[in-house]
Amino acid sequence: MPDNTHFLEANRVHWDELVGIHLGSSGPDGYNVEALKRGARPLHAIEEAELGPVDGLDVLHLQCHFGVDSLILAQRGARITGLDYSPAAVAAARGLAAEIGLDARFVEGNVYDAPSLIDGRFDLVFVTWGTICWLPDLPAWARVVAHFLKPGGRFYFCDAHPAARVFDDSAEAAALPLGTLRVHYPYFHRAEPTANTASVDYADPEAEIRNQRTYEWEHSVSDVVNAVIGAGLRLDWLHEHDEIAWSLLPVLVPGAQGQYRWPDGFTPKLPLSLSLSARKV
After folding, report:
1. Nearest to residue 159, comparing CAs of 224, 92, 210, 93?
2. DSSP summary character for residue 177
3. Do the bridges between strand 233-241 and strand 273-280 make them parallel or antiparallel, or are there none, so unpaired?
4. pLDDT tens figures, 168-215
5. Sheet with 260-261, side-by-side order of all strands
6. Whether 153 contacts 279, CB under 8 Å
């Protein structure tokens, strides 16, 4: 496996910087921390429809950023452990948990190192939105998930659909005629990541980002499914959705419940996100 240390470190520095931006972000695409503190912050619509009750469950949230979704689950009665590789994110998550008065544990570390950082097994492993594109090795990630599940435990995953991620998401693409999509990124996985310049933040488009260079890896639908099956998990279902939690592409328009969708009359309406549930047998 190639040495990806440089790429992963550049990404971590980028996410360290975003923590401060995201803590203060509000509006339709923001993290809305004040709503979280009031107990009025929902998950995104797809998770709300699919996840089910978590009261009394031991839940591990991998790649949790600064813990907003983790703390929503804790407010619903889950015993939460969150993991993220950004020390700024983990510090913010711990501070929020203390301020709100929630008993949630947050651990700093790379997801691949999680088995050496976290003890115990969990009823639910939760991974959602903008996660696997930052990972070079999907089978190793799935083995980490399987490691932490109790027998009968469930893995819930939701993210951008790989087919939607191939299209140009740049400012230039926003100026194309409606109905025009331009393929820009690879669909199939490559060992070498794609270098991007992240000059605009999805949660706060007005924010100034200093650490703009990021590196992402693509993973096909079959990569995701085969990684999960290869880790010994039984796939219960896989769903494809024509909506997504953020404005992945410039052509998308706001839809119901804070999601983004294709504009009316736009074809082809390809899937924008996917979700799956799997269990440890």
Report:
1. 224
2. P
3. antiparallel
4. 988 777 777 766 788 999 999 999 999 999 888 888 888 889 999 999
5. 243-244, 260-261, 253-254
6. yes
